[in-house]
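Technical note accompanying the year-one report. For the benefit of new consortium partners, we illustrate the data format agreed upon in the data management plan: each record pairs a sequence with a structure-token string. No post-processing was applied to the example shown here.
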Amino acid sequence: MKKTIVLVTLFVLPIVAYLFFLSGTYNFGKLPILTENVTDVADFDTAAFKGKITILGFLGADISKQKASAFNLNEKIYKRFYEFNDLQFIMLSPNGNEAQVAGLKKELGTFTDVKKWLFVSANEGQVKNVFSSLKTDLELDEQLATPYVFIIDKELNLRGRKTDEDGGTKYGFNANSVAELNNKMVDDVKIILAEYRLALKKNNLKQEE
């Protein structure tokens, strides 16, 4: 009897676990595409959405009003995922507030490595153009800011939820809400990272055949 239990533990259970995870991997859902052809900041800056998974935010002219959302994003999302090579965080704001940006970056740097925080300055028209290209049901305020952040994939598509459990399409995540970051955005970032990791593994397997 003991030998049977040992054999089951050593051989059968690992196989069952392997098959379970294999099945889960290949049935893994993708995060829906909500908008295609988002305007790339590469049109006016050295940074770029293309080729990276981007968390995009709009800090506005008065960055002090967006500090809380930036710190929440840093604690709940950035620290958890920033070590993934393909992930970056781009924060867009109007020209002329470089000193405020430097101050925010310095404050964030006291808590974590800020190498994946990219701050892009642009004129008003460029900021509005990027935001409008997202084609969401959200709006920038009069200072070109919003607490919402967005997931842009490597092909310039806005990703999100077509049917959010709270109702309607979810284009972005309110970074002022720790609960929303914890309960929704963490899951969606996991999904898109897993999607690209799986695609990379499949490509590597094809090359080895």
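Partners are asked to follow this layout when depositing records. The domain at 33-208 is CATH 3.40.30.10 (Glutaredoxin).
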